[in-house]
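Bug #77: duplicate submission created two jobs. Keeping one. Sequence:
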Amino acid sequence: ATIHLGVVPVAGGPETYLTRALDRVVSTPRFAPDGRSILFVSDLSGHSALYNVPADGSGPPTLLRDDPRAVDEGGLSRDGRWLVYRAGSGGGRDIYAIRPGLDSLPRPLATTPFEEYSPALSPDGRWLAYASDESRQSEVYVRPFPNAGAAKWQVSREGGTEPVWAHNGRELFYRNAAGELVAAEIAPGPPFRVASERVLFSARGYIEDNRNHNYAVSPDDRSFLFVRPKAGASSRLIVVLNWFEELKAKVGK
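Kept job's structure:
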């Protein structure tokens, strides 16, 4: 079945389809940092490549990155200078970066015999978070960017997937092996260091994909957007609001 990309106002309103005319399957959509366009993966070129389409439907999709190894997901840095993406097949997908319009070859960021996935750049562009199965289970790691080979830090210890940065850059969210959403507080300044971690809430009732991000954080870092499966019907979008107040009530602070 063909899967289309659409946008809908969180406050309610009609849905706008952006890729209906393509008659192709699209996946892993992600807003560009300026919110004006959406990056997505499709097989328009015969294999998976990364495309960009205006979020208001004012223009057709354009090719952003094609790679002989096939692209699974990708995102732009906040300043738009870097494109970080995942490419490969089977169990050997890797993470690369390229400066569109400047570089002729991509820069390898996490390219091991294991599988790396869910790349996420910090808002200040200093750190790359991602997940890997190098320890025989999925865990979240962080490397410096763009010199990713200089160091590596393990963030999660008992399973971790889908790392997503807070917009203020002071926290890194991820799902642990129990299906809970965890917030890792990042200490200011170099070197990279996790100051503390806390479980925010259970996310077991929402759709998860340990190879791609399946939730989003609001611009003010106080709300989350998840997808909840609904038997016999299309999945529903769920917004989790005021999670910090709920957390304070649970811990008595």
